[in-house]
Every structure is written in structure tokens, then in C-alpha cells.
UniProtKB/TrEMBL annotation:
InterPro entries: DUF486. It comes from Xanthocytophaga agilis. The chain crosses the membrane at residues 36-55, 76-96, 102-120. This is DMT family protein. The lineage of its organism: Bacteria, Pseudomonadati, Bacteroidota, Cytophagia, Cytophagales. Keywords: Membrane, Transmembrane, Transmembrane helix. It comes from the Bacteria. Signal peptide: none annotated.
Amino acid sequence: MKSIITIALLILSNAFMTLAWYGHLKFFDKTQTTPSKFALIVLSSWGLAFFEYCFQVPANRIGYEQNGGPFSLLQLKVIQEVISLTVFMVFAMTVFKNTKFSYNHLIGLGLLVLSVYFIFRKG
């Protein structure tokens, strides 16, 4: 159960992170780059990042094996990276409709999944 909670919280965390990092590229006017507009964008991103941490910190605390969770530190990091890239790909395809993914991207994602296999492999 802790593994499911950890992964769910990491997905939520990464959704906020992706929106904070890339949402302003879509949702703020691209023609104005005044200092006040830039400050508003940065503050908005920081506000979203707050919620990212509200999910990410508990996810890592719950999931970390030395806190009674099922994952080692390395496993947590690899899980987070795969979730981060997966959430980003979904975000890019749904919000930035002109973003196209090629076989190279899918192969790269497949190699990341393969890295999860090796990180979790006993041996």
C-alpha cells in the first residue's frame, strides 16, 4: 500500500512541477516580457511549486525504506524520473498540441523503463 501511495503522490507532485516549469509557456502572453510580467510568471511558478513539494516530500518520506517504506533512495529517484518524463509527455501532447514525439523519444522512454528494471533487480 505504501508503494501505491508513494507513486500516486509522486504523480501529483510531478503534475504540479510540470505545470510550474512549462505552463507559463502556454498560458502567459508571449509578446510581453516586461519586468513586472516576468515577476508575475516567476511568482506563479513558485506558487505551483509549493504544491509540488506538498506532495513530493510526503511521497519520499512514506516511500523511503529507512522510514518503513518499500523503496531505496536510488529506487525513489528512478521512479520519480520516469514519472516526471511520463507526466511531461502527457502534458506536452495535451497542452502543446503541436508537439510531436518520434520513435527516438519512445526508444528513450523505453530505455528509462529498462533502467527501472536494472535499479530494482536484485543482484
